[in-house]
Write a structure and sequence with these properties.
Shape: globular
Bound molecules: (R)-mevalonate
Number of domains: 2
Strand content: 15-25%
Distance between the termini: 39 Å
CATH topology of the largest domain: Ribosomal Protein S5, domain 2
Radius of gyration: 20 Å
Number of helices: 9
CATH architecture of the largest domain: 2-Layer Sandwich
CATH class of the largest domain: Alpha Beta
Number of strands: 11
Amino acid sequence: MPAISCSAPGKVILCGEHAVVYQQPAIALPVFEGSTKCSIVAKPTAPHDETIIVAPNIALKCYLKCLVEKHPIQVAINLVLQKLNIDHLPVCEIRIQSTLPTAAGLGSSASTSVALIRALSTFLGHPFTDDEVNQLAFEIEKIHHGTPSGIDNTVITYAKALFYLKGQPSEFLLPGKQVTLVIADTGIKGSTSKAVSDVRQGFQENKEVFSALFNQIGQLVESAKKSFINGDLISLGKSLSENHQLLQNLGVSCNQLDTLVEEALSKGALGAKLSGGGQGGNMIALVNSDQAEPMASALLFKGAVNTLITHIPAKGQ
Ligand code: MEV
């Protein structure tokens, strides 16, 4: 029997992370240079309880029955079965492979959920719509990240640049000019749930200061949206760099992120900031496309452990 395979990209937050949890807008972009693939193949001759899960990136290889009840993969499978009113999964091997680093701000958890939910619903003969995939992937994000805004699962499900405001219909964006980003990994694992919970603690202890920071970030995102649509990369870059300073004030940057951001700006990036939960993980530098390769080299030289270059093509390209 042929395997069913479905893939999902990674993502970066262009601007607005953390504030987006507090009812401010944010912009996220899909990243196709890293992705997750889920393949499922039926094992009709295997004993009924010997469905196997293989996920080398998270060092997982076991029977499904051995996963704890709250494991995100177990929960994802149960949610798909429940939605389809199916009591048990036909015996199969589920293989999940990702080129996205974990705990790095590139959406590896949402990418895994989206690829798995898509592949499983297809394997069971009822491929879900994007809306259905997104809704279930959001449930899994809650297990990973506690109180997520929903931006990661949404940008990864629809795989389009997204202006996102919690509770509002998603608005897809096309840039007026090609947007090129160099994404550089500090190599430090940054847990999104910890970063989100640290910001929540800060907010609870100092509501006025944090609310003001969230509002400022929200205003920057509105202005970044205009620059993105109009292809004004200089002004977009300024918004990104200002956003980084506000994220520093929220307490989610770290020395390595700041060093890479400073290096990018000193080498002529139009703007640079941390991306995602922070406290490690990746930063992004907005560059002209001919600057991308030298910028990636400079960031590697300055300590980044990996870089990716991604382009969002302009409207009509
Ligand atoms: C993580 O990619 C973005 C955060 O704002 C968390 C969230 O929105 O769920 C840090």
